[in-house]
Amino acid sequence: MYSITKEIYFCYGHRLMNHPGKCKNIHGHSVKAAITLQSERLNDQGMVCDFADIAAASAAFIDSELDHNFLLHKDDPLVGMLQQANERCMVLNEHPTAEYIAKLIFDFILAKGYPVREVTLWETASACASYRETHS
Ligand SMILES: [Zn+2]
Questions:
Q1: pLDDT of residue 136 exceeding 80
Q2: Domain boundaries, the chain
């Protein structure tokens, strides 16, 4: 099995409503998403996928939707306040944790037709969360 990993850097703000510590406060992260694709066969160019192609494919979501955006749970009272002030935010069905953001990126890349194996989101230099689907 072959695999490749492309790293994409972006920034976002969020807060975690149910967090008992300082993550409940509004704050931001400068993160790295590592997108891993896998394939049993190489294409005509001898690749799993051109790195530029996966960067371009993910840009439609990461650059356009996540980067420099403010991610909030749908029940967060800040959603209404920000929308009323015409401030940009992304409203999520789940809490905007690194785990869930990794899943959002995974789902987007998969829906684009790429053979994604795993997405890892490095929220800090020493802490990351990953999402992959298990196949029986
Ligand atoms: Zn955070």
A1: no
A2: 2-131
Q: Which CATH number fits domain 2-131: 1.20.1070.10, 3.90.78.10, 3.60.15.10, 3.30.479.10?
A: 3.30.479.10
- pTM metric for this prediction: 0.94
Distance 34 CA to ligand 1 centre (A): 18
pLDDT in tens, 80-117: 999 999 999 999 999 999 999 999 999 999 999 999 99
Tokens of 91: 């409203």
Ligand 1 center to residue 79 CA distance, Å? 17
Q: 26: CA distance to ligand 1 center in Å?
A: 8
